[in-house]
Amino acid sequence: MVVVTHYDELTWPEVADLPREYPLVLPLGQGYAADAIAAALGVEQFILLPPLPYGWAGSSAPVSEAMLRRVVVGIFSGPFEEGFTHAVVVHAGAESLESSDIQQVRSVPRHPPQPETELAATPQRVILIPCGHTEQHGYHLPMNTDTVIIGAIARGTVERIPDEAEMLPALPFGVSMYRSSFAGTMNMGGRVFEDFLLEVIDGLVARGADRFYLMSGHGGNSSFLHNVVKYAGDRHHHIFAATTWLHTSGHLGAPALEQYRRSKRGGMGHACELETAYLLHLRPDLCRMERVVDEIDFISTPNYYMDWIEGGALIMTATWEDDTLTGSYGAGSVATAEAGARWLTIAIQEKVEHVQEIHEQARLRLARRDEQQDAGLTPHSVLARQPWR
Question: Are residues 99 and 154 in the same domain?
Answer without folding.
Answer: no
